[in-house]
């Protein structure tokens, strides 16, 4: 399939320095630079087959084309006709919205889908990039509404080909505090290899999928040139393990792990009786609310793990058999080898 253009949309965007070189014989791509999207940008640019354009709500300061050949455009997501005009001639749209305002992110996502159809966009990826099921995580609730909207949009006939990219949990988080790639945001995980401790629900038999963010970005870049129809279920697997197996892997790497357990009854009651819990570090979380939000979000997260929300399919593994995924143990060994 001849892809001329890809656009990625995000929330807070900023210009950044990338190790990637600009495409030699580019086709058009449009991208955001919010965390995960930055990894995707690098992987797309590395293939040297697509131009990249960042669409942002913020004013574009400086040149509209940076040193990597990435174009920057300011857009108004509430202006559907304007979006459709910008999207004309574009083959693929990739979306990276954050739920800072549920109503706005749903409206903007739906406008983007409608404008993509009006403009003749061939492929679309909604703002997912994580779990198989979102209902246990309130801040991800908008994703389910957009899934339903896409399904309804294609009811009867396909109007917009789309896939829901689902890597599960990024294994990079378990390298905390050692960031890789360097611009990837890190926060303390529930299996904390730095301090040799972990929290798990009951016996830890819930399965999770662990994928490096680099592999996810590479799969997205490969998917742009995939000649078949994109699958709606866009799961990919670096490693599939139970939480208990993840803890055992951590013991092999770090020597010992102190494990605390949480009961399902306590989760249902909204009670966390452990001696510690991860802190959420995110620019959208006010400092004065950090402790309250961290505990609440961690309870939601543990509940999502216990109910298998992070156990995703291997759909893209099967569609891209030539691609080699880094296993969780390979990645974590490279991070923790030789560290005290």
TrEMBL record:
Keywords from the named record: NADP, Oxidoreductase
GO molecular function, one term: oxidoreductase activity
Gene3D superfamilies: NAD(P)-binding Rossmann-like Domain, UDP-galactose 4-epimerase, domain 1
InterPro entries per the UniProt record, alphabetical: NAD(P)-bd_dom_sf (IPR036291), NmrA-like (IPR008030), NmrA/Isoflavone_reductase-like (IPR051609)
Protein's UniProt keywords contain tRNA processing: no
Superkingdom per UniProt: Eukaryota
Presence of keyword DNA damage: no
Domain NmrA-like: 37-227
Residue ranges the record marks as coiled coil: none
Annotated family: Belongs to the NmrA-type oxidoreductase family. Isoflavone reductase subfamily.
Protein name from the UniProt record: NmrA-like protein
